[in-house]
Each structure stands twice: as C-alpha cells, then as structure tokens.
Protein 1
Amino acid sequence: MGFSDVSVATLAVLGSLVRLGTAAPSAECCNLLAAAIPDNVFLQGSSIYDTQDDDFWSATENLDPTCVFMPDTPEKVAQAVGLFVQNDCAFSIKGGGHSAIPGAANIHDGVLMPMERMRRFEIDFDAGHATVGAGYVMGEIYTELDQHNLTAMIGRYAKVGLGVAVGAGINYLINKNGLSVDNIINFEIVLANATIVNANATNHPDLFRALKGGNSNFGVVTSFTLLTEETDGFIYGGQMFYPESSLDQVSDIIYDYHTRQAIVDPLTHVMPSYGYNGTTNEANSINPVMYNKGVTQLPPVMQGWLEIPAYDNTLHTRPYHDLSGELNDGYADGLVQEQRVFTVYADAQLYKDLWHNFHQWCQGYQHIDGFYCLHVNMPITPRAVQEGIDKGTNSLGLEGVGNRTLGVIYFGVTCNSMDDAETVLPAHNDFVNSMIQLSEDRGLLHRYIMVTYSGYDQPALASYGPENVQKLFDVQAAYDPNKVFQRLVPGGQKLPTQ
C-alpha cells in the first residue's frame, strides 16, 4: 500500500525533550513545550490562544487550558507527545471542535492541541483515495474534491472535523458505501511511545480495526487516507421545510426512507429531523434531502418527500461543498448544546412515539432562554453494515442485524446560558433514558450507542459488545500499556473500566 512507519527517534526530535523528576504542573508543561517547539506554543493572553479557546460548537467545551499547542507536522506532534508522557502532562486533541461533551476537545489546566495546521492533502487518482491532514473540516475536503469530480464518505456539515473518522460517521453515501470509518484505508497516528506509524489492513491491522470506532483512545491521528468516489461534479439536494401540520406524514415517510428508499436506491440520502423552538412554541421538520447524482430532480423513489405539504425547500443541483455549507449555516456556534443517542430496529409506531414524546417534553421547557430541541432519526441499512464487514470490519459491533434497518435515534437540546444547563441537561438525560426503556420494552432496542452523538456519561464504547471491547483492550495493551490516552487525555469517550 505504500504506507510505512517512522520512528521519532530516527528523526532526532526526542533529544530536545526535558524530563522532570515528578509530574509537571500544567504551567511547567507549557514552559517545557515552548522551549522545545517555540513557534507552535501560545500562552494565555495571546490572540491565537483566545481564538482557539473560544472556537467550539458548544459552550460546554469552553474550558481553561493553560496553553495552546498548534503542531504543523506529525513530527512535532510526536515530539510533544513524548514530552507529555515523560512529564505526565495532561492534554486534549481538537479537530473541528464539534463535540458537546465537556473536555472532549478542550481541557482545563492542561495543553489544548488543535490540529488545525495539519494541512496535508494528496489525491491518488489512480488508487482512488485522498490523504487528508487532521486539521481539515468537511467543507474544505468537499471543496478540494469537488474540483476533481470526486467525493469521500465523510461527514455532512461544513465545520465538522475528522473526529467522525474514528467514531462512526454517517455520510451522504452511507447507503451505498457504509459508515465513514469503513471508508478509511490508513490512519497515520502518533502512539504513546512517540512513534509515528501507519495503521491499515496490512500494517498494524489490529490497531487499524480498533481506530474504526475507538475514538482518541490509542494515539493522535495526524492524517487519514479516505477512499474516494467519482461523481458527476454535482448532486441534487437541499432542505425540505415542513410545518407542524405535516409532521404525521413526515413520520410515515421517514420510516419509508429507512426501510424502502435507502435500500431500493442506495444513492438516496436524507437526514430526517424534527425541531421544536421554545421561543415560538412551534415545531417543524427540516430535512436535508439529496440524491448523489447530477440530476435535476429527485428520482421517483423519493417523490413522496415532495408530496407532503411543505412551506419551503432549497432543492437544486449543486456541488457537495455547497450543500455542506448550507446545512452548517443553520447551526450557530457557542450555545449550550447536549446530544444523546441510542439505536433501535426500525419501527413505524416507535418512530412516531419517540417524536411525540419528545415534543411534549420539550414544551415543558419553553420558558428557558433560547431553548431548542432537535430530534434526528438516521438509518443504518443492512447494506451499510455489510460494507463494514466487507471492508475488514470495524469495532462497532453491528454485525448480526440481518436484513433489518437500524435507526440511530438522536435527541439534542440547546439553550443560551450555562445557568439553565443545570436544569435542562439532567432532565434531558432522564427523558432519553425513558425513551431507551420504552424501546427496550417493545423489544426494539439495539445495544449500539454512536460515539459521535453520545452524551458524556453514555457507555458508547462498552456498547460495542464484550468481544469488541476485549479487542480494544488488547490493542491498548499492545500500543499504550501505560494507558497514556486514558490518563493524560481525560476528555471524550474513553474505554470502559476493566
């Protein structure tokens, strides 16, 4: 495949590391890092520190790092990891900063490491893949690939980073090609021993499999090699806006999309969504609806979306990056966000009841400033699961669902103030748990919890099942025996306790 390992020792970067006798306070860690890599370290009070510390989708990520380290090469990442390990320095890894889990991409009293300057981008047209630095966000990747009539199976929103590529990754072509993690063919990653390795199907295959769902538990990924797909240069799609009076019909077509449209024609893609605005006490449904060909209208299998009374739509022929940007424009940064998720087997009545119950619950909090509820129901079809198996399997534990579509059930809440979060977020947790129980009582609950949409205390990695979790522990023992990425990178979804 052409991917090889690089030892940091051979690059002579470890010689610049300084070891303290005991664990260093975070300020001392930043001083050591600034002495070793001065051009990439930014202290409190600098404009770059202020920008990076505030650049998050959710206010729940606004913490207080001691300094910001912005590497621009894998070697500098490795040098920093070596210093962190030698001195027990806590740090965080930030891609697009789009998690709502406190500390997933930021840290209090430690080193914040945004990957923004990791800007490698190489397309291998003959081999059908692109290698992308960890600093890219989705809109930038689509913009680069659109120029060559190519796309990749990555996230859908322009400002989302590549964390999806170690989580799961629902993408525009999931119905045809599977989850994002199943369309990565190489991870360039810095390990706990400060070496740079390439993990793929032939080189470190155990690590390669673990990274497909294992989150940031095994190292710092510095670049991803993505399978690419040839396109017409354009796709047809946009958003369909439905009023509250149409939502029962919307629920019907969501089930039809999960169990028929997405299966009959895998080039279809819809992100079925309901919203509730507490300020206006109004509900609606805003659905990204698209077809992965350069056509001028939706195909017959998707005509039902046009037959439901809608108050607006933005459907037209466009490149991927344009659609990605439009979808992102509807979501502001810096508000208080919480996401929670679980998975069910597709069922029409359950789908209706989940939204109905959420709508009722949300109305009880309309007095909260800026309160908004979002419910999304995203399918994983049998073909999408099989794509993962055919491409070498992943860590998610989705095998064995047979010919049944899974629905990834997302519940999200937004408000303006962290003061209100103390009331809203625990209640949201209780509500979601009640819906999990409802699904289980009906025999429709699947154990899977998608890490990229999970709440901070949801057991996402444990949901992969005992066999897969044991494989993750085995990889940890082989590549990170001192549990560096559990101890020193405390945020985000971690491996369960053994």
Protein 2
Amino acid sequence: MESLEMGVATSQERAGALTRAWRRLMGLPKNSMAKVAELAKKAMKLGKDDPRRVTHSLKVGVALSLVSLIYYFQPLYNSFGVSAMWAVMTVVVVFEFTVGATLSKGLNRGLATLFAGALGVGAHHLASLSGKTGEPIMLGFLVFLQATGATFVRFFPRIKAKYDYGMLIFILTFALVSVSGFREDEILEFAHKRLSTVVIGGSACLIISVVVYPVWAGEDLHRHIAFNMEKLANFLEGFGDVYLRESEDGDSNRDKSLCRGYKSVLGTKSNEESLANFASWEPRHGRFGFRHPWKQYLKIGASIRQCAYRIEALDGYLTTKFHAPPQVQTKLKELCAEMSMEAARALRQLSSSHKAMTVPSSSTPHLENSRAAAKAVRLLLKTAFWKDATDVLAIVHAATVTSLLIDVVDCADKIAESVNELASLARFKTTEKVHAECDEVVLTVSTLETTVSPENGTPPVRRDPAPVV
C-alpha cells in the first residue's frame, strides 16, 4: 500500500515538473519579447542621455570599413598580405571615445612599434653574428633583458599614467620581430609591413576622430568641473531653504530630491584624472591652448570632493529638525541660512564664470558675506547663553550642524582660490574685457543718401542710422 502511494506521489511530481516545463516553454516567446523590449528601451535611453555615443559607434564602424579595404582590393592585399590584419586590430584597439584618448593610444602604439621594430631588427642582426648555435641563446637573452627592463619601467607613476600602453606594445613588438626573425628570412620586410599597417590603422582613427564630430576630453573636463560646483550649490540652497527655513512639505520633498546630486561628486577622482591625462594629448581647439593647465583642474576637483564629503556629513541632519537652545535658536538659524545661501551663490557664480572662462570676480562679495556670517556664528557659540542651557542634546546638535556648515564655507573658499588660480594660469578674460569686446561688435551703419531720378517723383530719402550686430 505504501509503495503504491509512493508511486502515485512520484508520478504526480513528474507530471507537475512536466507541466511547469511546458508552461515555461510556452511563455518563452512572450518573455523573450519582453526582454527585447526592455533592452531596446535601455538602448534608447543610453543614446538619448549622450547622443555622442551613437556618433562614436558610427565612426568606429566607418574606420573599420575603410581599413578592411586592404583585404578587399587585390593590389593592396598583394602589398601587405596577412599583415593587413594589424591595421584592423589597430582600429579596434586605438579608437576611443575622445580625441585625446585616441591620440594617446595611437601615438603610443605607433612610436612603440617603430622603436621596438628597429631594436628587434638590431637584436636579430646582433644574434646572427654569434653563429647558428649561439643565435637562439642570444635572442632569448635579449628578449629576457628587454621584457624585464620595460616591465619594470612601467611601474614608474608618470610612465604608468601616460605611456603604459606604449610600453606594452613595445614589449610585444620587440618579441614578435626578434623571435620571428629566427625563422623568417625577410625580417626587414616583416617589420616594415607591421609598422606600415599600424600607421594606416592609427591614421584612420585619428583623422576620423578629429574631423568627424570630435569629442574633446578637455571640454568634457571643463564642463564636468562646472557641473560639480553647481551640484554643491544646489544642496546648499536646499539646505538653507528646506532645512533651516522649514519650507512646505511639497516643496521640501522636491528640493530634497534635487539636493542629492552632490553624491555623484564623491567618486569622480579617477574620471577626472583620466580626462586630464587625455586632454594633455589634445591639440589646440576652441578656447583651450596646447599647454592649457589641465593639472589645475585636478586641484579644483579635489577641493570640490572635500566639500562634498563635508556636505555628506551635513546631509545626515536633514532627516531631523534643527534643535538649539531657545535663547539662540532663531538667531543661529538665520546665520546658518545666510552662510548656506551665500556659499551657494558664490559656488554658482564660480561655476558660471568657469563655464564662460572669465575671472570669477562676482563671487567675491558672496564669499565675504558667508565668512562674515561664519564669524558671527563662532562668536554666538562662545556666548554665555550656552552655559544656562539645560538641553544637552540640543546643544550638541546645533554645535555639530554649525561646525559642519562652517567647514563647508571654508571648503568653498578653497574652491574659489583654486578657480582663481586657474583663471590666472589660463589667462581668463575679465568681465569688463568681455563686455568691451561685445560692445565693439555693435556697429552703427549710416545708409547713404539715395538720389532718385525726377521721373519717379520720389524725393531723396535719408534713413536714420541703424545699429547692426
């Protein structure tokens, strides 16, 4: 009886498993369509967020198609043979999103191939002088020596930052040329073909990257720094309006969601360093010269992140109501709100001046007001009202919030110093000079007196001067 029940249970489990498998199989087309639709939505959003990604994808496709012509046309294939594959590989590896990154990889790969090829030919010639028995031993020793030395050089910070890819190609090309020369008779032809195909692939990448809708790493870094300052200003404005002045709930929720933009500033160090590195490779473009002080942008970014870390600590107090001893609560809230709003205005002025590449003189009054409010807060914290207060938690809360806010104001001063230093190094224009140049563009053109023949009966007409831009 028990065995019969067990058999029935087993058959039911099998039937249930088959039913579930059949349902999954029948629902597979529907689930697949849903996943395809979701993937399409993500792809559309990715393209709308930054249309340059679509353009970059098309540029890579065009470059690969052009370089592939070496294989398709017989005369070109007869000249390069199988070595034409190096041109295709160069396009795949070298073509990057920004012009600076493409130039960095292209020049690294080209120069490394040239030097390594020349050294490889020299190593092959030197090893051939030692006879058939000593040639492989000498080649192995030279490959070991070159690989060891070049790999160690890659650990130097400056080499690691700018020439790491070139050192990697240097090791690879030297090994290929020198080792393959042991079996190849035409070692010079092999090195020449490899260098030529690398130059063809790299040139295609550089020309398309610079000519067709170029994406400059320097411009991205410049806008990135300005947007980060705006994000800090958004938080400080929200902190002064929402938290200290206790806005209405509807506006409060909207503003608090807007104020969370500072969180994206905290992890921007690696991105800024890579953009500054790629920007240093770029030629003169727009308002950015060849020796633009890109390292100063890293200094500004570091100051912005320090301010963002203070803001992150200050953000933890948005969930609770501001508490302070009743004797000083109103005055303290007013001073903290003034500090926050003035620092926000200063950062916003710094951001707009940075975008326009002008000297940020308009931020100075706001910074002075925020420093004056911070000084008043420090004096208020030292008054005798605190000694008579009985609510210890209110004292600790108020002292913590105000001290963090004072630190944020100090960080805003450091940001302003870094931006002013950049303006001096990059020779930003003053606001007065920009207005003067704009005024020179407006010209007053006086039309000549029109003389009409007596037949038309119209007297000569003289029009008033009209400003022309």
Protein 3
Amino acid sequence: MRDENGSFIACQTVTKLGILSVKEVEAFGLLEALQWIRCMGWFNVVVEMDAKSVVDVVLESRFDASELGLSVAECRSLNFPSICS
C-alpha cells in the first residue's frame, strides 16, 4: 500500500493452498486486498491491477460458479462503489 505521494505505508502477504489458474490467483488477490482495505478502514483507495482478464470479469454482471467467479462475486459483495456500479 502506498500513500498519495507513492511512499510505502503497509503491506500484507496471504497464502492459499491448491492448484489455481493465474486468473483465479489474481481474483483471490483482489478479494484479499479489498477485504484488507475494508478491515483497515481506508477510504478513497485506488486499486491497480495488470490482469485485464480479471478486471473484465469483475466489471461483467454475469454469474460464474468457478473459483474465479466465486472470488469475483465475493469482491462485488463488499459493495465498493467503483466495483458495484
């Protein structure tokens, strides 16, 4: 996590056991980051990702029962305005 000046303020590491695709791991990482942001009580946070395919799935409205889809659905359930609109 960086502040508005780009200075380091915090980080988190999470592990998950299993064999997952790159997209599933990226979605899981996004979910963990959003949960952490909410837990820390931070607002006005910009999340940057280089996984366009995951961003596309997050912005779609369809339901997907895969591991990727379930992580994305959980991201949406956190009700962050830019994800939910």
Protein 4
Amino acid sequence: MTKLMILLLPGVVAAFTSSSRSKATTTITTTRPPQHRLYSTYTDYSDTTLINIDEEAPRDIPSMEQWSYEMGAQRTEGFTLTSDDGGFDVYAMTTVDLPTGSPVLTIPEHMILSSTKAMAELRSTDMSEAEKIINSVNAESEFRQYYLMLKLLVEYEKGVASPWYQWLNSLPRYYTNAASMTPFCCLCLPSLMRKLAVQERGYLQRLGVSSIKLVPYLNDDTKYDVDLCTWVYQIVYTRSFESADGDLKIVPLADMFNHGAYPEIESSYDEEGNYYAYTTYDVPAGSPLRMSYGDPTNPSFLFARYGFLDDSTEATFCKIMPEHISKEMEELGYAHNKMLFYKDGNVSEEVWDILLFQHLSSTKIGDKRALMEAHRTGDYATKQMLHEKYFANTSAALLEHIESFLEQLDKLSEKACDRQRDLGDHPRLPLILAHNDFVKQTFLTVRMQNFGY
C-alpha cells in the first residue's frame, strides 16, 4: 500500500530545555503542521459536537497537529506522522538523520492528561457509590485508569468546547487487542494468551458501564453507551504510561510513538511536568521513532494489551506453566521474561533449570537439594554435572512439551479457520491466526535446533 506522509514545513527555532537532561541546551525546530489533509478533508468543527466513534470513522490527524502546534508542542525537523495502512495505524518517523541524544519532541504540561490531575478534578464524596462498585470487584488498583476514563468522558461530552477535542478526534476507533475480541476469539488463543485476554477483558468489565452509570456528573447518554465506555477504556489502557512518580500520563502527539524492541526514543519529564523525548542512538532518515511499551520477550502481553504482533522480538515465553510455582522455582528463575525460547532455536538456561528441578522433585530429592545449593552458591560445576546426569530426562520433557503445545496450537488454529467465514462477527480472527503461527514457528525452530526435525 502506498505510504501516506505528512511533509513538515520549516518553522522557527526555539530552545529545548529540560532540567533533567544534560543536553538540555540543544535546539529543536518548531514546525508548523501541513495545510493539507492526510486521509480526507479537515473536519469542520463549527458544525460538530460529539466525536464519531464508529470503528470506520476517519482519524483527523492534520487538525490534531495544528492544535498541538498552537498548544505549544515542539518537534524536531524531520519528525513526521505516517501510515502504512490508510490511516488505521498512524506512527511517528524521522525524515532526517538524528544523532544519539537528539531532542525529538517536547510537550508542555498543560497538554498532558494524567491520573493525578483527573482524580484531583473529579474525585469527591459524590463518587462514593461508583467507587463502591470498583471496590466490590477488587479493582482498587485500577483507580488511576478509571479516573482517566472519566476525564475522557467529561471531555467527550464537551464536544468542540473541550481543549482536547482535536486530539480525541485523531485517535483510532478500531482496536485488535484482547478487550476488542469476542468470546469465541478468546477460545482460539493458547493458554497464556487466553489467560491474559480474559484478564484484559475483566478490566474492561469492572471499569465499564456498571460503575460509570453511577457517576453523578455524566449524562445518561454517556453512562449507558457501552461502545463509548469501551473506547475510552481502550484509549487509557493503550496510550497511558506510568511516570517515575507513579502517575499515569497520556501525552498527546507522543502517543504516536509505536513500540519497538530496540526503541529509538526515551522519555522524561522535568520538575514542572513537561515531557521530553530524545533519541537513544543514531537514527537514520526514514526510520520509525519508537518507544518501549513493555518487555519485548513477552509478545503475548503486547498482543493482549495493544493488539499487535511484535515479530522483532528475539525470544518468547516457552509456555511452560506448572499448576503450582514454588518459591524454589522462582529462585531458579521461573518468570515469563526468563523462561524463553529464542527465534534461533536456543533455549534459556532457566528453562533447563526448571525442567531439571521438576524431574528431581519427583525422583531424586537429594539431587534436588544439591541443585538448589549449587544455584544459591554459584557452584556452576555442580549444576552442570546434574544437568549432564539427567539430560536424557530433561530433554525428553522438553520435547514432550513442544509436541503437546504444537498439537494444541494446531487445534486452536483449526477452530479459528472453521469460523473465518464469520469475519463480520469475529474480525480479529486473522490476527489471532497470525499470532498462533508466530508462536508455532518459534517452537518448530526450537525443536529443529535441539532434536533435528
């Protein structure tokens, strides 16, 4: 598909300052947004009240860029927004070479939406009934996200009077993450991904209409609009990130940075709450500008939360999920970001350690104690001796796990393929099939590397 791109016009040079960065005196070019439409025509806001949240509604990127410029956002020469799919996914890139440590973007504090500011504005004794619902479903940990959702609903109701109207109208309406999937879609996912999907959908259910309907300052059309509540949920959970002080923040324009396993961008805030983005290494012209959304070795979480497949990751969780995970297993390194299968077919040390521990737990208690003692004292020679002694057992366990998981994947994909004719009801099925195939290819490579077929 033809790549669509906004071409930036030259502007004036302004100081890019940050008290938390050594290169704070570097200058950044403030560029005016283009005077043309990226995907259709500019929205005529004089006759518009509420934003169209239909999944196929176009994203008005140019008006958002004009708004960000007028609000004081600054961006370096070469920073541009583009799309490879006609505007569903819009992301930042650079059209010029950017050296390491280059300032890329600064967003003034007053443009930033935060959970702290939302709670200060919207939380009161009148919210006690709504909060009781949140507490009753054990979702107290999600209060920050909840009040950010309410802030977005308040701004949505204001229509064009909202300071964030143009930004809201630039956001995606169509999502492919777990919260957007049908129950049948979840049934086509492997165990870990299904668990994460159920968890994500649970957040949506707990923070949705059941509690929002008790918010006193929202009108009834808003409170009972399931699609609208889902949309603001998606915005908060896919575009907010925690700052060092524990605040959840959504930074307009910076929220156009996609995820990368090797991000080009790092973010920071100064004491006044202004946002800064710098390059982490030399970035050549034509490259995307990406940040990190989370652990790149856990593509299942990235898929569940954000709805994309990160095929740039070098490894993925091995999917070994015991019914009970003991403290000793955690001590040996049982964690989703350590129990890894690599795309080149290698297996992480932690996987072998856990397989050995499981085998010794049911057969050789004395050697299990020796394994734990060797691990705790850093006695590599003893650990290696135990691995060699029981290699036939652990390799057999590894192969059994690979074979059974591949069989599970085939059955799940077959189930999804049987329903692909119902794409109108389950439009995320093709992406689920791609996810399952991505995992399958990694498992097949590990099997080939370790067992020769």
